[in-house]
Amino acid sequence: MTPFTFLFQKRIRGFRLAELAAFFCLTALVLGVYFSKAHAGGETARIGDVDDQITEEQHRVRLLNAELAHLEEPARIERLSQQYLGLAPIDAKRETNSTSLMEIARAADTPAPPAKVVKAATPPKPAPAASEGAVR
Q1: Domain limits at 16?
Q2: CB distance 84 to 76 below 8 Å
Q3: 93 lies in a domain?
Q4: How confident is the model at residue 132, as a pLDDT?
């Protein structure tokens, strides 16, 4: 008897050993597929949750971009700078062209003449007080 024929001829409680081995292999295969599908279902649920989070974050990003566009409006910034900082657009007389920049730089480099120091007038000295004993 070879080991291969032993597998098909040996009976346990009326079942051939090959039938029992095939049953256990089939059962293991069915359980493996069941557990892998159950795990895949859980992963699918988690992927759906992440997709929902991504959608919410994209919505928040769109809202923040709209708010940023509103906050960066030039007219709004100009109005706020005038209101809170007292800034205003530069007058046309303060603008210059590129040829006169050298003259402005030279004028800034020349030191201003020293200011004359004016001595303050000294206050008059109070008159000496008379002695108390002589004035009565």
Answers
A1: 7-85
A2: no
A3: no
A4: 54
24 assigned to some structural domain: yes
Q: Is residue 109 part of a domain?
A: no
- Could you tell me which residues come within 8 angstroms of residue 81 by beta carbon, excluding any fewer than 6 positions away? 87
Query: Both ends of the chain: CA-CA distance in Å?
Result: 158
In a domain, 39, yes or no: yes
User: In this predicted model, what pLDDT tens digit does every residue of 69-116 receive, in sequence order?
Assistant: 999 999 999 999 999 998 888 888 878 888 888 888 888 777 766 666
The count of domains in the chain is 1
pLDDT (0 to 100) of residue 124: 66
